[in-house]
Design a protein that fits this description.
The protein is an alpha/beta fold. It is 37% helix and 15% strand. It has 23 helices and 19 strands. The strands form four sheets. It has a six-stranded parallel beta sheet with strand order 3-2-4-5-7-6, sandwiched between helices. Helix 3 runs parallel beside helix 5.
């Protein structure tokens, strides 16, 4: 069969079951885009207003359980605009396929429009993208695509997942070749299951059965491997506290009596207490990142000498940041299933029962939530919004939050009960993620409510995607947490430097030194979305109920108090933020 490079890409994505491609057409990807026009009944093209949003849509679509998507961008700036999104996906191990237009093979190095010119033999743009992706290809001949495409999906989806990049020169997109389209099923293993070493699992079971204060640290790998049932079974067999990382939130129901919330810099008092006092920690699908570990400060979140059992699909993560008593390379589901069998073999038919331990977890959580509510004033605070939104949101609601107070406080305070109902850029903590991610999540899960908690700074970075949400008619809800500035950084500055040294963190006019709040309701309506403003705590629930029932994109702007007593959250862990030497 004779097909152009663009047609090969389109047909292969259809064969892989990819439902959407996200991107913006330009002169550098016209032949690629045109191949999708006659295939609109089998694969849809979604055109955001900025390429960063394309990657965030694809990213969140996978996180919400919808499978991997592809992006298409033109040569030069259109493709560079993807960098933030690709770095976000790479940091959090999210697979997507990024196709970028490139200079014609016969014009490489001559300085064509939007080429980064360094010489005819250079691979300049793919080299620039390489640190942001798991694997990259520069396809210089159309006939190579049939080989590259299956390898790209294999790399993205197997082992530790991640984004991949394929550079498509303009002539490669346009030229036709005789080729047979490969069958994805014949080019990839049927499963990404990796079973652990049996001896390691036996040793892990012995260590865990001897523990008196076991804690399970559940990371994003538990979600990737669909291991929620196995995680719960192991926790209940051991009667172990379960603490979730930023990426693992939702893998274990947060209303379960063994749920001990979160540890680390942005964790909770309960989570940090339980990990700090643990004698054995079973870490599953986590890389012990800085935020999870309170910057590795001894005694903050983890105590030196605590015995660690680590199950992870990436062997480079085992023993990287903490010494490990037992390490096993495996996916979370296979590792936990084998561990459960080993625990049953050695522990008999009756699970452990630690009534005092469960009571301690409950008491720690009670103190934490009492401390949160004890800080509330009569003003509308982010904390109150989060709690009142949770009260009117169905259990299966997907919650999204980007960097800053919305991410930290939603992680701490907005409880999640099911897998893939929490989406946040954990490792890269990217701003501008919330709105496009809400679009991607809703495309993946059209029957679930989706709410994005976006600070005003975060929302302004990708606010143009309200137009896309309106075009698609997606019933997403954006909870705009408006406090007129980068107030999470203001509060950090106040804590580190003193109240008088908060600097460049409020949105103020240079003339007259007055606050310059943005009217997000007006902007949303200008983008053909419904919107309303909330100024009082009692109005939160009714406004959100109207938003959920609206049937289309709906923005609720919460006019938040800016007073530090209402904005500063509880720092339950430690974050290593060095002070300038001149402050002493």
């Amino acid at each position: 069969m004779s097909m152009t490079g663009g047609e090969i890409v389109a047909e292969y994505l259809i064969a892989e079951g990819v439902p959407y491609v996200c991107g913006i057409p330009g002169h550098g990807d016209m032949a690629l885009f045109d191949a999708f026009k006659d295939r609109a009944d089998r694969i849809s093209v979604i055109a955001p207003r900025h390429e960063q949003a394309a990657t965030h849509i694809a990213d969140a679509h996978f996180r919400a359980g919808g499978g991997p998507l592809a992006t298409m961008t033109s040569i030069g700036p259109g493709s560079v605009n993807q960098a933030v999104g690709l770095a976000t996906a790479f940091s959090d191990s999210i697979p997507l396929i990024a196709f970028t237009g490139g200079p014609q093979t016969y014009m490489l190095g001559r300085g064509v429009l939007q080429e980064l010119e360094h010489g005819a033999s250079d691979n300049t743009f793919p080299d620039a993208m390489r640190p942001l992706v798991k694997r990259a290809w520069n396809v210089q001949r159309t006939d190579l695509l049939a080989d590259v495409l299956p390898r790209a999906f294999n790399s993205a989806l197997t082992g530790r997942p991640g984004p991949v990049h394929i550079e498509l020169p303009m002539d490669v997109q346009a030229q036709a070749v005789e080729t047979a389209l490969p069958d994805p099923r014949s080019r990839r293993a049927a499963t990404n299951r990796v079973r652990p070493d049996a001896d390691a699992i036996d040793r892990a079971a012995e260590v865990l059965l001897a523990a008196e204060r076991p804690v399970i640290l559940a990371g994003g790998g538990c979600l990737h491997a669909e291991a929620a049932a196995e995680l719960r079974a192991v926790a209940e067999r051991l009667d172990a506290a379960v603490v979730a990382t930023m990426m693992g939130k939702g893998a274990f129901p947060e209303d379960h009596p063994l749920a001990a919330e979160h540890t680390g810099s942005n964790g909770t008092l309960c989570g940090n207490h339980m990990t700090r006092e643990a004698d054995v920690i079973l870490a599953v699908g986590t890389r012990f990142a800085e935020q999870t570990c309170s910057s590795y400060a001894p005694g903050q979140s983890f105590t030196p000498g605590t015995t660690i059992v680590h199950l992870d699909i990436d062997p480079r993560e085992i023993g990287k940041n903490y010494p490990t008593e037992v390490g096993a390379v495996c996916d979370a589901r296979s590792g936990l299933a084998d561990l459960l069998d080993a625990l049953v073999d050695r522990g008999g038919a009756t699970p452990a029962v630690r009534e005092a331990y469960r009571a301690e977890i409950a008491e720690q959580k009670r103190r934490w939530h009492e401390a949160i509510r004890g800080r509330w004033t009569d003003a509308l605070s982010m904390s109150r919004v989060l709690h009142e939104v949770r009260e009117v949101s169905p259990r299966e609601t997907i919650a999204i939050a980007s960097a800053g107070h919305p991410q930290i406080q939603a992680f701490q305070e907005f409880l999640c009960y099911e897998p893939r109902t929490w989406i946040s850029p954990g490792g890269y903590s990217t701003m501008g993620f919330t709105l496009p991610a809400a679009i991607g999540a809703k495309l993946a899960q059209p029957d679930r409510p989706v709410v994005g908690f976006a600070g005003d700074g975060d929302l302004q970075q990708t606010i143009q995607e309200l137009a896309l949400a309106a075009e698609l008619g997606l019933p997403i809800v954006i909870a705009c947490l408006n406090n007129t500035g980068w107030l999470s950084i203001r509060d950090f500055q106040r804590g580190m430097f003193g109240e008088e040294r908060a600097f460049s963190v409020e949105f103020r006019a240079r003339r007259g030194d007055r606050l310059m709040p943005v009217d997000f309701v007006a902007i949303a309506k200008a983008f053909n979305c419904e919107a309303e403003r909330v100024t009082q705590a009692g109005e939160v629930g009714p406004a959100m109920s109207r938003a959920y029932a609206s049937g289309g994109p709906y923005l609720v702007e919460f006019d938040l108090s800016r007073k530090p007593v209402d904005t500063e959250n509880i720092n339950a862990g430690h974050w290593d933020l060095p002070r300038p030497a001149y402050l002493g």
